[in-house]
Each structure stands twice: as C-alpha cells, then as structure tokens.
C-alpha cells in the first residue's frame, strides 16, 4: 500500500479524518433532511471541493462518485503516481459499495412522479448504477486494465481489497486502485434501517453496555496497492503491506449474523492462515463494531476465541458512523494510519464496556502500541464476511 485517501463526516481528507478518529470525536449530528423519521442523526460529509471535481463531466455526478474520485485522487497524490505517465493497461480499479447513486435515484423518482417520464434526466442511469463509481475512476484517471465493482453490503470495501490483491498476485496489473464509497444517507435508506431496529437516535457506541444501534454515514476510502517489485522500481515508500485476506458466508439469515459467529470466525482464521501468521502475532484489531446489540456481542465472542492474548480492539464507527459499503476501505486506511503512528485509536462513544464481552476495547484515549500486524474486520447483510490482515512495511 503506497497511498490512501479519506472522505468522511469528520473531513474531506485523511489528516482531518484521522485527527477526529484519534481524538475519539463523534461526528453524528441532527440532520434536517431526516425530520419526521424515527431517527434524526446522520454522519454527512461536509461540503466537498477538490481539483478533480472541477473537470468537465463532474456537474452531474452523484455524491457517491464524487466521494470516490476525491479519495482516489488523494491516494494517488500520496503514492506519487501521475496517471498521465502510467501504462493504463497495467492499472486496475476495484470498488466496493452497497447501494449506488441513491440521491440521483431520489431525484429521478420525484421528477417521474411530479412531471412525467419526459422530465427524467438522461443522467439518471449513469448516476445511479452501482458500477459507476468504478467507471468514473477509470475514466477520470485513464485506467484501461481490469475494473470490477463489488457489492457485499458492509463488507464491500474489504472484499474489494482482496480482489485487488488477487489481481496483483496473478500478474493482471502492477497497480490497483481500491475504493469503497457510499452515499446512503437518504430518507428511504434511513427508514429501512430503522424498520430493522439497527439505527440509534442517541449516537453510535460500539461495545458499550448501552449501545442501541449505529448512525448511518457516508464517505469513501481509497488505497493504492502495488506489486512490491513495481513499488521498489520507482522507489515508492510503502505505508503498509496487505499480507492476508479471506472471505466467508454465513448462509444463516439475510440480515442477522450467525449466532455463534461461525462465518466471521472462519474468515478471521482463514485470513491469518493466508498471512502465514498465528493469532498471537496480531497487535490490534479494527473491529466491525457496528454498535448493535447482536453484532457487537457476536464479534466480541469471536475475537475472544481467536485471540486469547486479548489485543486491543477499536471501532471507528463510534466516531464516523457506519459508512456501509465504504466501511471496509475507510477502516483499512485507518488501520494503516494506526500502524504507522504506533497507536490504537479510541472507540468514540464508549463509556462503559459491555460486561458480557471478554475483549480489551480501547476507550477514552488512544493507546500507544508497537505491534507490527493488525486485523480489520468487515461483516455485512447477507452473511458476507471479509477480513484483511495488514502489517507495517
């Protein structure tokens, strides 16, 4: 990994986002657009401005595509890569997302209902389809190699990481741009989560005794992955290594995790095996940590079984909310920053750890840690599980 970019409710760049996560600052705020719904909190991205959005063709982009483009542009800048100089055939794009351009869909539905089909914009489908974040990244940066759009619900970003790693390992590309992006803070989506009892109107509190759901968030995370030989040839400075990845499926329920954590545990153990390391070598865990009663309890039980040495555990969703399909990429980027700085960030919102959990959840303040390896978990509706193992360079 040679570059990363972040667009979140905490800020539109990696430094601002990392500062909020490191400080344990929650970004959830009352959202006027959600007035009259069962919940009123969201984690929205602030007003976004970046040179990549000033180019022709940007005016009609859905927010999800705008978030993705900005995050990728940041990652390329840090990696020191100029798209004008690379061989686009040797570059891949792999994106993860859960819903596509929902704002674009909402506008089109409103026009169809109020004024008729002739008033639906021709930009509707290019703005709505789930693959368009991937397509816009490829178009904007001249990528002509493999491009894939993945959707495994809230595991999508981590699924994208694994697919990108496989493309690199297979020699299909030298550079892979990975981006998880989501812009699902809409009245219908928030209502849907409320109907499932998954969201909170008091704030996200992962692993806290009083947790009652997550806050729906939007944003994007991007990472530049390169084959080691390619990075070395251009004297790039690696930020971290992706040394292991695995995925599994619960095949249990459409929205509830397996009560014994079977699929999640399978994915964690398989990712460690893929990395060729034992559980004791893991210095900290970036948990999926959604702040729901069921998910946190099951994940904590899995972590206590796999990691009896009790490495420190954190969840960024207390600070940033749940960015859904973007979460895996956002949290992988945060895990890279944690490894680089030698800390485990706090879990915002954690006041009193659930006494039923047997894991060491970091609360209140960041904790110094010299570990060389970290695990990042992502679990999604449909029983999708994806786990990444990251290491210092």
UniProtKB/TrEMBL annotation:
Keyword Acyltransferase part of the UniProt annotation: yes
Pfam families xrefs: ketoacyl-synt (PF00109), Ketoacyl-synt_C (PF02801)
Protein family per UniProt: Belongs to the thiolase-like superfamily. Beta-ketoacyl-ACP synthases family.
GO molecular function, one term: 3-oxoacyl-[acyl-carrier-protein] synthase activity
Keywords attached to this entry: Acyltransferase, Transferase
Highest taxon above the source species: Bacteria
Gene Ontology annotations of biological process type: fatty acid biosynthetic process
Residues annotated as domain Ketosynthase family 3 (KS3): 1-392
Protein name per the record: Beta-ketoacyl-[acyl-carrier-protein] synthase family protein
Organism: Streptomyces vinaceus
């Amino acid at each position: 990994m040679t570059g990363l970019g972040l667009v979140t409710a905490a800020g539109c760049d990696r430094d601002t986002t990392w500062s909020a996560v490191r400080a344990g600052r929650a970004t959830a705020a009352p959202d006027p657009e959600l007035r009259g719904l069962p919940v009123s909190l969201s984690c929205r991205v602030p007003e976004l401005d970046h040179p990549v959005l000033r180019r022709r063709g940007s005016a009609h982009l859905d927010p999800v595509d705008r978030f993705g483009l900005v995050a990728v542009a940041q990652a390329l800048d840090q990696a020191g890569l100029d798209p004008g100089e690379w061989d686009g055939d040797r570059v891949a794009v792999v994106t993860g997302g859960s819903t596509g351009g929902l704002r674009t869909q909402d506008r089109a539905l409103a026009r169809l209902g109020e004024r008729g089909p002739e008033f639906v914009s021709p930009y509707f489908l290019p703005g709505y389809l789930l693959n368009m974040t991937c397509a816009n990244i490829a178009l904007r940066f001249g990528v002509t190699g493999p491009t894939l759009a993945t959707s495994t619900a809230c595991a999508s970003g981590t699924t994208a990481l694994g697919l990108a790693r496989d493309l690199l390992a297979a020699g299909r590309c030298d550079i892979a741009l990975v981006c998880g992006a989501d812009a699902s803070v809409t009245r219908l989506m928030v209502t849907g989560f409320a109907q499932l009892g998954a969201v909170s109107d008091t704030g996200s509190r992962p692993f806290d005794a009083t947790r009652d759901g997550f806050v729906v968030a939007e944003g994007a995370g991007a990472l530049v992955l390169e084959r080691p030989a390619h990075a070395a040839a251009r004297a790039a400075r690696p930020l971290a290594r992706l040394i292991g990845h695995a995925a599994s499926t619960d095949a249990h329920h459409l929205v509830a995790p397996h009560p014994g954590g079977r699929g999640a545990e399978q994915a964690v153990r398989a990712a460690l095996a893929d990395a060729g390391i034992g559980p004791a070598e893991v210095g900290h865990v970036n948990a999926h940590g959604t702040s729901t009663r069921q998910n946190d309890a099951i994940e904590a039980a899995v972590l206590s079984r796999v990691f009896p040495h009790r490495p420190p555990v954190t969840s960024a969703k207390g600070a940033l909310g749940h960015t859904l399909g973007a979460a895996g990429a956002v949290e992988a980027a945060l895990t890279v920053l944690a490894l680089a700085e030698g800390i485990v960030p706090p879990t915002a919102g954690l006041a009193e750890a659930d006494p039923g959990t047997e894991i060491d959840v970091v609360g209140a303040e960041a904790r110094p840690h010299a570990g060389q390896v970290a695990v990042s978990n992502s679990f999604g509706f449909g029983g999708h599980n994806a786990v990444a193992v990251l290491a210092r360079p």
